[in-house]
Specification:
heterodimer, A: about 350 residues, Rossmann fold, 2 domains, four-stranded antiparallel sheet, globular, disordered C terminus, B: about 300 residues, mainly alpha, MetI-like fold, flat, transmembrane (chain B)
């Protein structure tokens, strides 16, 4: 993935600045039970040609952040209460509904997890792909269909000409996800957000789909936000990683540094809980406890009830993002201890 | 698909035979048609015996049934006791009822679906609660109450329409009766559409449609409605069969000489040929309507394929 890393160092947009720059984003869900603070001040940036992997458990706010960027948050109950989503330096949150709609799909697109439910069951894939061209580009239905076939060929769906009239349920899981990718790629957007694009697939198919996505990204020099909880996928394709916990970023780092020496106990816990061949037969490590209830996020560092390094300060003071190095940051008061400690977290108690 | 249709048509044969035999058995075995023919007067035994012979009433029931079926398939539904052939009664009654059904279905589609879409998209808002309450009332109040109330209100008080329908029963006179007939189904269509819309609004594919940057109108019509109306369309389809035969109360209230009216008269006077004939046709209509609904379902939802 060296090529992608090289590209990220190139100047990316005429206005300077990164392609996408999310600043201090806050999202909350106002439910009957109370206000769930799903995203609490997220900052991250993606350049053209760069892949940012956003990692975290379910409920960590990684998908909600993505929905807020796309502008597809269910509102109500979801509201962006603070922050900026700068796309080429322009704040999308200040755009009108219609202006925002024209960005969606055309300049930034999203790939969803489960293609079977994310595709419309009663429209054939040709219609669903072609719709991008008829709506955004004003093409005729016939031309749009031809474009759809072209797209399907580009994502290497065999017999695209015949299959363009098939319905989503008539495709295999992998082929369906390729349709999903084709739909996101249709108008050659500058940014793609892939929300767990391979989670619903067989392991063998996962690699193929991931490779395809990475290849298309290189070809079109797109920015890619890859939301996942699969650390294996991340290592292969991502340039940098942002780890999220309880709606905050707890660690950001270039991908290889994080595997070598995680600077946050949560990241460390995640890495230690990957099954490894050389530890066969041993009990698999799991981070103790459960992710916090977003209605009642613990005071101080949200991770402290589950953290092996927790001290008194962690219960009272929310850790800022400490600079670990030129390119790394960690929201842990004890990042130095964490980074210098290479024993698995499980041995320390 | 072709094989499925053939199989379904073949399945209709035993259902048809069973249901018609049941009706035949009930109507002929439980009453004495000859006594009914003479009304209150006791018939002259010799005449009665002669009529019995002519009508094959002395034959065993299964033989009568076979004879009846043979006649039906040659287009002869027998003669009503007033001398009119049952087929001519049908010829005058069915067009009227069909017109009434059309009016009712149009009300169901236009009002029912519109209300359903509005409430489904504004769940929990005052419109939703109001309409929901209204549908509950409509479903709870029997047709003869709503029928008489509306007839009195619009026909007698406001004089917007004639309180009863002329024998020709043109469309404009059938608007109010059509509404009355449609009311209960209309309430069900509203609720069904509402639930279906509400369910599909939360569906993943709808979020995809939004993420694609489609305009709101297109999202609603092409993605939301296209999916949500599948159960509604099938309900309305089944309702056609139901409305055709279930109009007895409405037709009585507005004095419409349709199928329900004739059936009612037939039952009242123990007029066996009329009752059996009409019910036989209604059974057929119901079976065909159900088959059409099943086929329509496959057309609307590509995931359903009959083999």
């Amino acid at each position: 993935m060296a090529t992608a890393a090289e590209m990220s160092t190139e100047p990316v947009s005429a206005r300077g600045g990164p392609l996408l720059d999310v600043r201090n984003l806050h999202v909350e869900f106002r439910t009957r039970e109370g206000v769930a603070r799903a995203v609490n001040g997220v900052d991250y940036a993606v350049d053209a040609g760069e892949t940012l992997a956003v990692l975290g458990e379910s409920g960590s706010g990684k998908s909600v952040t993505a929905q807020a960027i796309m502008g597809i948050l269910d509102s109500p109950p979801g509201f962006v209460t603070q922050g900026q989503v700068l796309f080429h330096g322009e704040d999308l949150l200040k755009f009108g509904t219609e202006q925002r709609r024209k960005v969606r799909g055309a300049r930034m697109a999203m790939i969803f997890q489960d293609a079977l439910s994310a595709l419309n069951p009663v429209l054939n894939v040709g219609e669903q792909l072609g719709e991008m061209f008829t709506v955004h580009r004003g093409l005729s239905r016939k031309d749009a269909r031809a474009k759809a076939v072209e797209l399907m060929e580009r994502v290497r769906i065999p017999a695209a000409k015949e299959r363009v009239r098939s319905y989503p349920h008539q495709f295999s899981g992998g082929m369906r996800q390729r349709v999903m990718i084709a739909m996101a790629m249709a108008l050659e957007p500058e940014l793609i957000i892939a929300d767990e694009p391979t989670t619903a697939l067989d392991v063998t198919v996962q690699a193929q789909v991931m490779d395809l996505l990475a290849e298309l990204q290189r070809e079109y020099n797109m920015g890619l936000i890859l939301i996942t909880h699969d650390l294996g996928v991340v290592a292969d394709v991502a340039d940098k990683i942002a780890v999220m916990y309880a709606g905050r970023i707890v660690e950001t780092s270039p991908v290889h540094d994080i595997y070598r020496a995680p600077a946050h106990p949560y990241t460390k816990g995640l890495l230690d809980s990957i099954p490894r061949v050389d530890q066969k037969g041993q009990e698999l490590y799991a981070i103790k406890g459960l992710p916090p209830n977003l209605l009642h996020i613990p005071p101080g560092c949200a991770f402290h009830p589950r953290c092996p390094l927790a001290q008194d300060i962690c219960r009272t003071k929310i850790p800022p993002l400490y600079r670990v190095s030129e390119v790394r940051a960690s929201a842990c008061h004890f990042w130095k201890e964490c980074i210098g400690d290479d024993r698995p977290a499980a041995d320390k108690t | 698909m072709g094989r499925y249709v053939i199989r379904r048509l073949l399945q209709m044969i035993p259902v048809f035979i069973g249901s018609t035999f049941l009706i035949f058995f009930m109507v002929y075995a439980l009453g004495d048609p000859v006594a009914a023919l003479f009304g209150d007067r006791a018939p002259d035994p010799a005449t009665a015996a002669q009529i019995r012979n002519e009508l094959h009433l002395n034959d065993p029931l299964w033989k009568q049934y076979l004879l009846y079926m043979k006649n039906i398939f040659s287009g002869d539904f027998g003669t009503a006791f007033n001398g009119q052939s049952v087929t001519s009664l049908m010829g005058s009654a069915f067009p009227v009822t069909i017109r009434l059904t059309i009016v009712a279905i149009i009300f169901e589609i236009i009002i029912g679906i519109t209300l359903g879409v509005i409430t489904g998209m504004r769940r929990g808002k005052p419109v939703d609660t109001g309409v929901l309450l209204l549908t509950l009332i409509v479903i709870s109040v029997p047709t003869f109450v709503t029928g008489y109330v509306l007839q009195y209100l619009f026909g007698v008080q406001l004089k917007w329409t004639a309180p009863s329908v002329s024998p020709e029963a043109p469309f404009n006179e059938l608007i109010l009766p059509g509404l009355v007939l449609a009311l209960v189904s209309l309430a069900y269509v509203t609720r069904l559409t509402r639930t279906s819309i509400a369910e599909n609004t939360r569906a993943d594919y709808l979020r995809t449609a939004v993420a694609k940057g489609l305009p709101r109108r297109r999202i609603i019509i092409r993605h939301l409605l296209r999916n949500s109306l599948i159960p509604v369309v099938t309900f309305i389809g089944t309702d056609v069969g139901f409305l055709m035969g279930g109009a007895i109360v409405t037709e009585r209230i507005f004095n419409i000489h349709g199928v329900g009216f004739q059936l009612y008269q037939g039952i009242l006077r123990n007029n066996a040929p009329t009752v059996v004939g009409f019910v036989t046709i209604l059974v057929l209509v119901f079976l065909l309507a159900n088959l059409l609904v099943d086929l329509l379902y496959a057309v609307l939802d590509p995931r359903i394929r009959y083999a």
